[in-house]
Amino acid sequence: MARANKSIYSALAANLLIAITKFIAGAFTNSSSMIAEGIHSTVDTSNQLLLLYGLKRSIKPPDKYRPFGYGKELYFWSFIVSIMIFGLGGVVSISQGVEHIRHPETLVNPGWNYAVLAMSFVFEGASLIIAIKEFDKTRKGLSWWKAIIKSKDPSGFLVLFEDGAAVLGLLIVFILMVLSHNINMPFLDGLASVLVGILLIFVSFILARESRSLLMGEGLTPETQKKLKELVESDDDVIEVKSILSTYQSPKEVLLVMILTFEAKLNTENLTQAIDRLRNKIKAEYDVIKFVIIQPQSVNISERDKSEDIYLQ
């Protein structure tokens, strides 16, 4: 979480400064694309604030209303961020661009825009480098795309995507602004705004997909489940793992439910000891698993009445 906070704070500072300068430059030069970039940076600034709020809410301790904690607050606010990128970033930028394509305005004093773009490249580039370095520490040898797909901490890859889209958007605006100025085709400025909007919508779909998956309840990977099965079945009192259910409550908290077949000879006291032993063994092996629910069934219980009491800690 601390790593994510570092990249979020750097992105917040960069976007706040850039948004102000972009709006000033856009007002002085009648540039649609610069206004669109200002909107983009404003949305990004709001997104970082929402992510920080989600991170703060997610670390609240469990209470009687949320016995498993508030970890999924982060997933909820990450999904809201992806919606904001789509609505306030993408749609507004496209609308602004279409309007300036239909009614193009000649750029006035474009030097303002070039100066702001140069400053933006410096700030956004620095923020992107920090986001890349921080996310790289979490990859553990995986490819970048696979690491993003497998990541359970949206605050890391959200900032990475936002900063990447910001730098790419600046390149689009710079190229089309130079063309618009030099070949006297002012509609290209509006086209740049449309392209930035399309880029933001594309990014928002990717982020919404990942955030939605986490919010809906992603579980442990098949590889981890296989290792868990082997670990539990190595116990002398366990015959078979019948089912493994899991869900991430937060990037560092997993709720695990296991249905196990135990030896029929076990009495209530032996069964309780076996469950406690397995629970401790699982938590010792996997720090991320914070809640373990084990539901035992005896090998000689009928299919109609297999389940016994649930043991929870």
How would you portray this structure in words?
It is a multi-pass membrane protein. Pfam families: Cation_efflux (PF01545). One of its GO terms (molecular function) is monoatomic cation transmembrane transporter activity. This protein is of the alpha+beta class. The protein folds into 2 domains: 2-216, Alpha-lytic protease prodomain-like; 222-312, Cation efflux protein, cytoplasmic domain (Alpha-Beta Plaits, 2-Layer Sandwich). Helices cover 66% and strands 11% of the residues. The chain has 9 helices and 4 strands; from the N terminus they run H-H-H-H-H-H-H-H-E-E-H-E-E. The chain has helices at residues 2-29, 32-58, 73-102, 111-136, 144-150, 154-182, 187-216, 222-233, 268-285; strands at 238-250, 253-262, 289-298, 311-312. A 4-stranded mixed sheet has the order 1-2-3-4. The longest helix has 30 residues, at 73-102. It is elongated and about 90 Å long.
Helices and strands, with pairings:
Blueprint: H1 2-29, H2 32-58, H3 73-102, H4 111-136, H5 144-150, H6 154-182, H7 187-216, H8 222-233, E1 238-250, E2 253-262, H9 268-285, E3 289-298, E4 311-312
Parallel strand pairs: 2-3
Antiparallel strand pairs: 1-2, 3-4
Helix pairs in contact: 1-2, 1-4, 1-6, 2-3, 2-6, 2-7, 3-7, 4-6, 6-7
